[in-house]
Design brief:
Elements (H helix, E strand, L loop, with lengths): L3 H19 L17 H25 L7 H15 L1 H10 L4 H29 L4 H6 L3 H17 L3 H15 L4 H9 L1
């Protein structure tokens, strides 16, 4: 099977996720600058989540360039990733509405952790069908960035009950690690 429908479906779901997040904003009751102040936590949570969804879209796009064919396991692994990504708008709204309080920040971290884990599973399934000498396998190498991300999410989840601001800092740090599209795949393609 080719990858065209998988890519199109994934792009559509990610576009809907971003749309759902922005629909959480309610118009201020008046036209003053002060009316925007209560929206600041929602806006900050939206910015962080928009960046995360953008990172996943970008890296998914790069990864799909390495794929020549898909099978049922890849399709299900991709749906697994999309499921966890689809929960980002809920967690985003919750942390924004509750001003980054403990339990919402913990849940946000759990969802980010599961997104990272689901992405890892998708990579494994792609490598299984394309082999250890595939572009993706060579590009990932030891997967240090992927492993570090999941470990940092776990630390942030554990800290969220006591230090939600530190958890938020960790979430921002991981996003910054991935902000630049993954050059490992581009580098492998340029070597050919």
């Amino acid at each position: 099977m080719n990858k065209t429908r998988l890519e199109a479906f994934s792009d559509g779901v990610l576009a809907i996720i971003i749309t759902i997040m922005v629909l959480e904003f309610k118009l201020p009751e008046n036209g003053t600058c002060e009316a925007l102040t209560p929206l600041l936590p929602k806006f900050l949570s939206y910015v962080l989540s928009f960046i995360y969804v953008g990172i996943y879209w970008n890296n998914h796009h790069h990864m799909m360039h390495t794929v020549k064919q898909v099978n049922g396991k890849i399709l299900w692994a991709n749906l697994h990733l999309l499921f966890w990504l689809s929960l980002i708008p809920f967690a985003t709204a919750w942390i924004g509405e509750n001003h980054f309080s403990e339990f919402p920040m913990m849940l946000y971290g759990i969802i980010l952790f599961m997104n990272g884990f689901a992405y890892f599973i998708l990579q494994i399934q792609i490598i299984k069908i394309h082999g250890k000498d595939s572009v993706l396998s060579k590009a990932i190498g030891n997967g240090l960035k992927e492993k570090a991300s999941v470990i940092l999410y776990a630390v942030a989840i554990a800290l969220a009950n006591f230090y939600p601001a530190i958890s938020g800092g960790i979430y921002i740090f991981v996003a910054l690690m991935w902000l630049v599209p993954d050059k490992r795949i581009e580098r492998i393609f340029n070597e050919k």
